[in-house]
Amino acid sequence: MKNIVTLAHETVVLTPTTREEQQEILAIETPYKIALNDRDIGASMVLETALEEFGAGFLFGQGYVRSPEEVKEVLVCPEGRISVYADVEEDAEPKEVIITSGCGGTGKISREMLEGAFDPLQECTITFPEIHDFILAILHGSRLGHDTHCVHGCGLWADGRLQAFYEDVGRHNAVDKIIGAILLKKIPARGAVYTTGRLTSDMVLKCARIGIPIVMSRTAPSSLGMAIARRAGVTLVAYARPDRLNVFNAPERIVQDI
Amino acid sequence: MKNIVTLAHETVVLTPTTREEQQEILAIETPYKIALNDRDIGASMVLETALEEFGAGFLFGQGYVRSPEEVKEVLVCPEGRISVYADVEEDAEPKEVIITSGCGGTGKISREMLEGAFDPLQECTITFPEIHDFILAILHGSRLGHDTHCVHGCGLWADGRLQAFYEDVGRHNAVDKIIGAILLKKIPARGAVYTTGRLTSDMVLKCARIGIPIVMSRTAPSSLGMAIARRAGVTLVAYARPDRLNVFNAPERIVQDI
Question: What is d(CA A194, CA A217) in angstroms, rounded to the nearest whole number?
């Protein structure tokens, strides 16, 4: 079943002296609870797409689930619950939690995650012709973004093609859906992520922890997003355009035509 | 003491065939704990400005503090703690919490808040000349936004002038600073709020609960942001420009020149 994720609304466009009716399209945000092994962990507003991916990615972002091997099954109940079943210790509980800044739907990370060491990334490089195709595929693929101006998109490019593209009302949720797809073994973790959102600490941290070596954004990173990229060795690209990248860390994974 | 909120970073701008060094400015996000009557409630990444306001507004957004009368004192410890002292019941604990979608730093609201009734708003209207001055003051006032592309701004206009303008790495945090300023009685709650961020559920909910009658954004609302505005009777304006507003609810508070 495909969920309905937008609704039309009549608005009034006002200028100092005119008044005109207009129809706008709104993105629908819906609250979902996320449960791990039948225990409620949290609840989040979400765009009702790729909910299995979101559930798994949400629990990764919060520190409950750590690898694809742990995730066994995800069931979505349309009444508003995503049930993730995973082979983890029952009392696994993240340490002190920080609500993250920036645009953060599922914006919580533990201090432990922020300060811990990183496993090696899944190495890869990307060429400019690939970057060109990747960014255009995302920008042209987002009908919902164009209609509502209220969603963020996140895609993963690997092995010469766009492997997945997800959207959500939250920039974090969109990244969580990519990470969930990796956890559910639908896409590889080696490759490049492109997000329309800003690269604050938690955004970069999630990608680094799952092993993604290249993280690109249409817009800017924060200081801590940058610091995490440096510690983890992630290639951090901001203001990414099809033919121009501003590389904040580890440019050696970007292959030029020279 | 004025905190340092940006840092410079050397980046490499790559095109398919060129490579050029460039300096970029990053917004600094810093983790702060927020305590209520010496009990730690949460922690959030924050831009180190207006931390007293942020602490009070954060606790309002989370449902711990409800009115200016309750807030007694806010102390900021530069090592990373904002201590709010308020006349509230010690065991006041929000009901089931939803992590909110969209760009949400302090993005948590309780289901109770989402479904509860609203107190009457603090009535006011705004004219087009006021809107013009309001929006230009905010757009021209944000040096930080221009430098970093990584902060959201939020301002409040009342009694014919810009009463306050705050910025933060998170769009929620910037609104929390405005709400905190109201709680600390630095600015009135009647008036119009303008935010550079999207109007998702929690953004509109916070403003409605503190009594702000007019909520404007540079960009779009979500479905639930709209639904809350309708239930609370808030004037909801999207895609706000100095001479053009797209009004999603209650246009009667916008005074035209006709």
Answer: 5
Beta strand pairing status for A254-255 and A244-249?
A: unpaired
Residue B66: CB atoms within 10 A of its CB come to: 16
Rounded CA-CA distance A60/A137 in Å is 27
Angle between helices A201-210 and A171-183 (to 10 degrees): 10
Q: What is the ipTM of this complex?
A: 0.89
Quick: pLDDT tens for A56-97.
999 998 889 999 999 999 999 988 999 999 999 866 666 556
Best of A32, A45, A115, A248 to substitute, by most chain B Cβ atoms within 10 angstroms, is A45
Phi and psi at residue B173, in whole multiples of 5°? -60, -40
Residue A203 CB neighbours (<10 A)? 30
Element (H, E) at A120: none
Q: How far is A7 from chain B (nearest CA, A)?
A: 7
Helix (H), strand (E) at residue A7: strand A6-14
Report the 3 state secondary structure along B111-124.
Answer: HHHHHCCCCCCCCC
d(CA B231, CA B115): 10
Mutation target among A135, A223, A237, A255 for the B interface, most CBs of B within 10 A: A223
- Residue found under tokens 């209650």: B250
CA distance A96 to A117: 17
Q: Is the dihedral of CA A81, A82, A87, A93 positive or negative?
A: negative
Cα-only R_g, chain A? 19
Question: What token pair was written down for B58?
Answer: 């954060």
Between the alpha carbon of residue B52 and those of residues A44, A62, A229, B55, B187, the distances in Å are 28, 28, 31, 5, 14
Q: Which residue of B has its CA nearest to A248?
A: B11
Give Cβ neighbours of residue B119 (< 8 Å, ≥ 6 apart): B209, B211
Q: Per mean pLDDT, which range of A18-22, A114-118, A221-225, B68-72 is the poorest?
A: A114-118
Q: Which residues in chain B have their CB less than 8 angstroms from residue A238's CB? A: 11, 24
Structure tokens of B178? Answer: 């405005």
CB contact under 8 A, A26 and B223: yes
Q: Provide the sign of the torsion angle of the four alpha carbons A143, A147, A148, A149, taken in this order.
A: positive
Is residue B177 over pLDDT 90? yes
Report the alpha-carbon angle B247-B249-B254, nearest 5: 55
**B219 neighbourhood in chain A, CB within 8 Å:** 149-150
| Amino acid found at B236 | L
Q: pTM for the full model?
A: 0.91
Shortest distance between the Cα of A68 and any Cα of chain B, in A, equals 24
Beta bridge partners of A152: A168
Q: What is the mean pLDDT of residues A213-231?
A: 96
Q: Phi and psi for A224 in degrees, rounded to 5? A: -80, -30
CB spacing of B248 vs A219 below 8 angstroms = no
